[in-house]
Design a protein that fits this description.
With 220 residues, the protein is α+β, with helices and mostly antiparallel strands. The protein contains 5 helices and 6 strands. Pfam families: GrpE.
Length: 220
């Protein structure tokens, strides 16, 4: 067996820089081969983006179809257009009817107010005559003919909602009584009507004229 020589063995080993250069050259060659497209059976490589175009085609067609259907929905059919016009006419009719009802109610209220004003004017003009009739009734007996006329006048005012009020003995109410005199009364426990000088008249809750009365007041 030959003797092992260490110096000869070290001289035969490859240099470290040479090994690194060989590895770098081999890696570059592998990257170049990987970047080249694979050839088909006829030797032609598939062009980049060929598969992508085939995949995007159906999506584009589907998007175009949706756009077309949306445009179609915006256009009403003759039946749909007729229904829409009928709904518009019905809405306009209901609005006009509501306005007419409001106008009719306002007109009715105005007529009632004008009618009431007319009755008040007539009643106010006849108040002196009505007061004279009441005084005659109180102090003397009316003959049959005059009594019939007075009764007709009372019924006529009742027909138009005129109410006469003011009675002896009722409690004094300043909202409907006008006290022309206060008379002390030892028997009175509260202010009461002792004498009705002129009767009061009202229509509903509206007092046309307060009853003019003499009030019996309790003594202090």
């Amino acid at each position: 067996m030959a003797e092992f020589n260490k110096d000869d063995y070290l001289d035969d080993l490859p240099d470290a820089d040479q090994v690194a250069g060989d590895r770098k050259a081999g890696g570059a060659a592998d990257e170049t081969a990987a970047d080249q497209p694979a050839a088909g059976a006829d030797g032609d490589a598939n062009p980049p983006g060929a598969g992508k175009g085939s995949e995007d085609g159906p999506d584009q067609q589907q998007s175009d179809g949706k756009q077309g259907s949306a445009d179609g929905e915006d256009q009403l059919t003759p039946l749909g257009q007729a229904k829409k016009e009928a709904a518009d006419y019905l809405e306009a009719l209901q609005r006009e009817r509501a306005e007419f009802v409001n106008f009719r109610n306002r007109s009715q209220k105005e007529q009632d107010r004008f009618r009431q004003h007319g009755i008040i004017d007539v009643l106010t003009a006849l108040l002196p005559a009505l007061d004279d009739i009441d005084r005659i009734r109180e102090h003397s007996d009316l003959d049959e003919s005059f009594q019939a006329v007075a009764t007709k006048i009372d019924k006529a005012f009742e027909k138009f909602g005129v109410e006469k009020f003011g009675e002896k003995g009722e409690s004094f109410d300043p909202t409907k009584h006008e006290a022309i005199l206060h008379k002390p009364d030892p028997d009175a426990k509260s202010e009461t009507v002792d004498t009705v000088v002129e009767a009061g008249y009202r229509i509903g809750d509206r007092v046309i004229r307060a009853a003019r009365v003499v009030v019996a007041s309790p003594q202090a």
